[in-house]
Amino acid sequence: MITICDKSVRNGSGNLYLGIDVGSVSTKFAIIDDKSNLVFASWERTQGSPILSVQHGFKVLRTALDAGVETRISAVGTTGSARYLTKSLVRADIAKTEIIAHAVAASHYVPGVRTIIEIGGQDSKLILLRDGIISEFAMNSICAAGTGSFLDHQANRLGIPIEEFGEYAARSTVDVVIAGRCTVFAETDMVHKQQMGYLPQDIINGLCNSLVRNYLNNLAKGKKLEPPIVFQGGVAANSGIRRSLERQIGHPVFVHDYFLMMGAIGVAMLAREHVARTGIKTHFEGFNIGDMEFVTRGFNCVDCPNRCEITCVERSNGEIIARWGDRCGKWAA
Q1: Domain hosting residue 330, numbered range
Q2: How open is the CA angle 139-245-102, to the nearest 5 degrees?
Q3: Mean pLDDT of the chain
C-alpha cells in the first residue's frame, strides 16, 4: 500500500473532493481541494474484490484523517472498471470512464498535452487531445501483453523486483529481440533467450522494446503521436518502458509524480465541476462505509430468451444498493 497525506488538511478549511479509481489490479483514492491541490492519496491492490478494497480504502482514510475532513467532502466521483459498483456503494455523485478522468488530470498538470499513454494492470489506452479536447482514443483490454500484470509475472519468474526492471534495462549492451505480440509468445521467447545464455538485463531490455512496439503497432497504428506526451498508469514507473517509448516515438515522454493517481485525481476534478454546475448537494455515504456489510448475489432473469445475468448488491439488512446486467432495464436500480 502507498499513502500520501498532506497533514495540513486536518486543520484546514474549505471544500474537498474525493475521487476513487477501482480497477482490476489496484484501487486508488485521491482527495483534492478547491485549487486542485492533492491533499490525500492512497493506492492498494484490489485483489479480486472491489467492495473489500473500497471499504479498506475508507478505513485508511478514517485513520489518516479526522472526522472534520469527512464533513468537508462536497463531491465524490468514481472511475475504473468497477466505477458503477463503487458509485452505488458510496453514493457518489458521478461515474466517469478512465479515458475522461485521465485526460482531465493530465491536462491540468501538463497544459497543452496532446498525447496520453496510459498502461495499467490489465489494459492499455491511448488518448489524443487537440485544444484540450479528446479527439481520438484507443483501448486494448483483450491482450495483457505489456500491461502491469504481465510485467509483474515476468519479474517474479526472473526473480527480479519489478521496481528494478528499469535499472536492469538501462545496463543492457546487447539488442535482444523478444516476440511481444502475445504474452504466451513473449514468455516462450524469453525462456529461449535465457537458455541461449543472454544476460537478464539484455532480456529485460528486449522485453521493454518489444512491448512498446506492440503498443505502438496496435493502439497507435495510423495515428500521429505529438508532444507534449504524458505517460500514466502503473507501468509508467518502469523507466525501461519510458526510455523505449522515447526511442521509438522520437519525442520526450513526461511522467508526472502523480502518474499512478491520475484517474482518481481526474474524477475528483470532474465531481467538483459537477456539483458546481448543478448545485446539487452530495449524497456521499461517509467514511463509515468501511464498517458496513454488503452482500453480492446474482441470478438469471427468465422473463425472455435473453436470460440476462443480473448482479445485485445489497446491504446486510436487505436494502438494494445496485442492480445491473439486464438489457431491457427491468431490474436496473
Answers
A1: 293-333
A2: 40
A3: 87
